[in-house]
């Protein structure tokens, strides 16, 4: 378990681990060779910096840790490699935490809420994963293990949780209802300042989110066509962004068909080198 990682964190990831990873994840194997090379290097750095913990006796093997690392690093592939005044560079996006807690199956999380009468309710909620600001990422291995098959539906648990981490780097919007916005450089979507970039972000994300919520309501209450994107994305704008990131990274063509209005936001953020400003 986790032998290569423990012993040789400073050496490149060996073919014996990397090639089977590509064979098991078609959405990684389809990347152009130079992109795979950088993903391999990002994954090495990720494995050197992060600590994996298996819960309930789950043993984390090298290939399990690498599968998580490579998928976590995929959204960083085209972001600036060096930090700028505006944004972290490379793995700096994930610099606020070290731990990755992997559960064999669903995670039962203790929750507490206070109702209008001031009564505290404690309950347990089944989760596939979780990302907390400044805290560890929690993942359910059974879901991570099915990443290749679930990519056909445009879903990916690891990308979902790490998309939350990326957004959290920018902090909450002034209006907390809007959720997190990743740090954006001036020039994003043609904006003239970092502040205008945030406004441009929400000007695209919010209407797409509201349109999606309407589709979910129509599907659920009026027997409309089911949405392609997981209806969970209608829970909050943070969830909409994280679910959209899953689809963008593993089913880009279908995502572009479903959400053409979001492509400038996603390409502008995740592929700043190739994006065309509006
Ligand atoms: Zn989420």
From TrEMBL:
Q: Which SUPFAM superfamilies match?
A: Metalloproteases ('zincins'), catalytic domain
What's the domain of life for this entry? Bacteria
Q: Which Pfam families match?
A: Peptidase_M90 (PF06167)
Extract the InterPro entries matched here: MetalloPept_cat_dom_sf, MtfA_fam, MtfA_N
Q: Where is the signal peptide?
A: none
Protein name as catalogued: Mlc titration factor MtfA (PtsG expression regulator)
């Amino acid at each position: 378990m986790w032998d290569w990682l423990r012993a040789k964190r400073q050496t490149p990831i060996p073919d014996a681990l990397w090639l089977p990873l590509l064979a098991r994840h078609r959405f990684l194997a389809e990347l152009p060779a130079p992109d795979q090379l950088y993903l391999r290097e990002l994954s090495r750095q990720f494995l050197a910096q992060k600590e994996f913990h298996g819960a309930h006796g789950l043993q984390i093997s090298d290939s399990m840790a690498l599968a998580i690392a490579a998928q976590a690093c995929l959204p960083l592939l085209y972001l600036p490699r060096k930090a700028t005044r505006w944004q972290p560079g490379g793995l700096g996006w994930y610099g606020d935490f070290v731990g990755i807690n992997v559960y064999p199956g669903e995670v039962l999380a203790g929750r507490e809420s206070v109702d209008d009468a001031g009564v505290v309710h404690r309950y347990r909620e089944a989760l596939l994963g979780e990302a907390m600001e400044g805290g560890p990422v929690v993942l359910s291995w059974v879901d991570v293990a099915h990443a290749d098959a679930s990519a056909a539906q445009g879903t990916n648990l690891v990308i979902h949780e790490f998309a939350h981490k990326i957004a959290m780097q920018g902090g909450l919007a002034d209006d907390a209802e809007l959720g997190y916005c990743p740090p954006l450089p001036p020039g994003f979507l043609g904006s003239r300042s970092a502040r205008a970039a945030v406004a441009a972000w929400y000007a695209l994300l919010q209407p797409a989110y509201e349109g999606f919520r309407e589709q979910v309501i129509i599907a659920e209450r009026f027997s409309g066509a089911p949405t392609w994107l997981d209806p969970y994305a209608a829970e909050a704008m943070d969830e909409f962004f994280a679910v959209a990131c899953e689809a963008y990274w593993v089913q880009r063509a279908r995502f572009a068909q479903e959400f053409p209005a979001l492509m400038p936001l996603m390409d502008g953020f995740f592929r700043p080198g190739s994006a065309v400003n509006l």
